[in-house]
Amino acid sequence: MLLGKKKERSAEIPTASLADISFLILTFFLLSTTINVDKGLGLTLPARGEKKEVRKENITNLLINAAGQVLLDGQEVEIPQIREIIHQKLMQRPQLIVSVKTDARTKYDYYVRVLDQLKQAGATRISIAEPEK
Q: For 100, phi and psi rounded to 5 degrees?
């Protein structure tokens, strides 16, 4: 007769494969994750020494001084106003080129904010002039 004691089973969760599962999940997320890379401004640089004649009426000059003040065609404007002014100018003259010139001590923040305003205005032809020394 097999009427002996019944063996009690112990209830344990097997943890031997936990590391394998962790690495599989980590690998899955590494391979399936996409990272958005900020594209920024696309620049087309002319060849070295290349000069191109542009009519004066197709150029508007924008100067940023070291204090962050902006002169647009000789008149002082606030940075948030640039978008509207340039947008109006582009409506009148679509081939307009905005020449941005800075002082050597101009903070990068002002420069980026002005470029953002130009981008929001729809300006695609932006000339970045050499900073004044």
A: -100, 125
